[in-house]
Amino acid sequence: MTDSHPNRVESAAGEARFNRLLNTLKQAVGAVILFGPPGAGKGTQARGIGRRLGVPHISTGDMLRLQVSAGTSTGRDARAIMEQGALIPDDWVNHMVETRLREPDCRGGFVLDGYPRTRGQAAALDKMLSNNGTQMKVFNIVVGYNEIIRRTTGRRLCPRCGTIYNIYVKPPREPNLCDRDQTPLEIRIDDREDVIRERIQAYEKQTRPVIEYLREQKQAVYEVDGSLPPEKISEQLVEILTAP
Ligand code: AMP
Q1: What CATH superfamily is the domain 31-145+218-242?
Q2: What are the pLDDT digits (tens) for 190-219?
Q3: What is the Cα–Cα distance from 75 to 68, expressed in whole angstroms?
Q4: Residue ranges of the domains in the chain?
Q5: Ligand 1 centroid to 60 CA: how many Å?
């Protein structure tokens, strides 16, 4: 069979139409931004939305953890900051995100998880997005203090596939092994209770004011009740994102 076989030509045309439609859909998704304190479920939701809408999930925390596990000198610097529950300097994180957003899979739509976290980062993102007219859709996942502590201290992570578990509310089928690939689960370096308290403080002082900043910039900010089951939250998010 040659390339000029009618079925093949038709399927190539169909694929091109499908890709155009997909790009239009992605364009409609724009920049989805998930806010919330540590343990709000940003990672779980961002991964789910990315999968359902076919756009990349970009987590600055995951990118930094990759550098930490690679053991580079940058990774060692990141680890020292993350272990204290503090934030990585804006210039560093802004550069990381700007480079990632230039990759072709981000054209049109993506989900940002854990970025922006300061007013400086929000201003930098605004500049990156206004260059190509991408719209922001911001979701603020609201969760109470006790729930944050329970979720973060119970969190376990598969270092291989990134699946997130919680020993209290979403335990793996076999203790401490990932359901998908049986890899032993890990505790994040910044999920110790003393570090979590620092992270909550960093959130209150530096990140919460970003919501106000975005509202001042007339960005759409949707509040989401983070105490709902994850499937309910994800339904709400997808409904808002796909509304005409
Ligand atoms: P996360 O996985 O988003 O909870 O991030 C884990 C840690 O990585 C944070 O506590 C910070 O130390 C660092 N981090 C992640 N994203 C950012 C960001 N946008 N700005 C500064 N530090 C960050």
Answers
A1: P-loop containing nucleotide triphosphate hydrolases (3.40.50.300)
A2: 888 889 999 999 999 999 999 999 999 888
A3: 4
A4: 31-145+218-242
A5: 6
